[in-house]
TrEMBL record:
Record-given protein name: Sulfotransferase
BP-aspect Gene Ontology terms: sulfation
One annotated GO molecular function: sulfotransferase activity
Domain Sulfotransferase: from-to ranges: 49-308
Keywords recorded for this protein, A-Z: Transferase
Similarity section: Belongs to the sulfotransferase 1 family.
Coiled coil stretches, renumbered: none
Length: 312
């Protein structure tokens, strides 16, 4: 498969000094390893109807959503002082469809753990997920903040100092649609259209709304994935404890997330700390020129205006 993928249209990111090459297949860009994993999942993955998929484009709140979903479904077994989240990066708590197929199959055989994460676009999800009517939770975020987050993540992953990584070039590339699992607007549109057709199986969550109203959104999430909070739990403060445990402040200060690594054996982006940067809404204002704002806003209107989603 490696050789086949190398025949796909490719783009080497010059602002990253050629350290990253993305390939285009099934209408989205990705690194070779994850294209390979996605294709394997499409060929062999058998979903269980009870599986719950945590879906997102990169840098839109994946780690946070994974931590929350994990804490919700494991709350009978662990509390905020015993949770594996205290010692394990959220990415390692939920297997990734395009990477951890064997682990997911093991979970299917040996446990009732329902969570699976993926960055795959909706149209590239394995057929069995859709035919099994699995629940899907999708998180999305202000596109300008995603661009800034994407920029710093790739810069840090490739160990480039700020002065060697021009933001303007990273912006242009993202604007042209070349980003991990991008174009980002197509990613949103795929899930959005599906959610209109099948609202009972797709929940849309917005990063900024989750910050404004964490309690309401965590309750919504728990209900949707089939683990609603009881009245007694609400009274006992279980929701607030989960929110605190999964907060940026808490997770980013844990030793595992400050100095740990994951997937170190095969991917260049292994340091956990780079998944926890600032988590600030509107950080884009520190990076965008007026011209960039005008360009991206126009594109967002063109591509996503009809959805009514607020993305700028
Ligand atoms: P991924 O798709 O590569 O896993 P993802 O988790 O989606 O990354 O996005 C990382 C962003 O979420 C970072 O945003 P920033 O660059 O603007 O700072 C990161 O700081 C933010 N983030 C990580 N953990 C949390 C959290 N617990 N709550 C809110 N935001 C978070």
């Amino acid at each position: 498969m490696e050789e086949t993928i190398k025949t796909f249209p490719q783009h080497t990111c010059s602002w990253l000094k050629g350290k990253l090459t993305l390939y285009k297949n099934q209408d989205f860009w990705n690194v070779r390893e994850f294209h390979e994993g996605g294709i394997m999942a499409q060929q062999s993955f058998e979903a269980r109807p009870s599986d719950v998929f945590v879906c997102s484009a990169p840098k839109t709140g994946t780690v946070w959503l994974k931590a929350l979903a994990f804490a919700i479904i494991t709350r009978e077994k662990y509390d905020e002082s015993t949770s594996p989240l205290l010692t394990t990066m959220p990415h390692e708590c939920i297997p990734l469809l395009e990477k951890d197929l064997e682990q997911i199959e093991e979970n299917h055989k040996n446990s009732c753990f329902p969570l699976v994460a993926t960055h795959l676009p909706y149209n590239s999800l394995p057929e069995s997920i859709l035919s099994s009517n699995c629940k899907i939770v999708y998180i999305y975020r202000n596109i300008k903040d995603v661009i800034v987050s994407h920029y710093h993540f790739l810069r840090e992953a490739n160990k480039l100092p700020l002065e060697d990584a021009p933001f303007e070039e990273a912006f242009d590339e993202f604007y042209e649609g070349v980003s991990w699992y991008g174009p980002y607007w197509d990613h949103i549109l795929g899930y959005w259209k599906a959610s209109l057709e099948r609202p009972e199986i797709i929940l849309f969550l917005k990063y900024e709304d989750m910050k404004k109203d964490p309690t309401g959104n965590v309750k919504k999430l728990a209900e949707f994935i089939g683990f609603p909070f009881t009245y007694e739990e609400e009274k006992a403060g279980v929701i607030e404890n989960i929110i605190k445990l999964c907060s940026f402040e808490k997770l980013s200060n844990l030793e595992v997330n400050k100095s740990g690594k994951h997937r170190a054996e095969d991917v260049n982006v292994a340091e956990n700390r780079i998944y926890f940067r600032k988590a600030k809404d509107g950080d884009w204002k520190n990076y965008f020129t007026d011209e960039m704002i005008e360009k991206i806003d126009k594109l967002i209107d063109e591509k996503l205006g009809a959805t009514g989603l607020v993305l700028k």
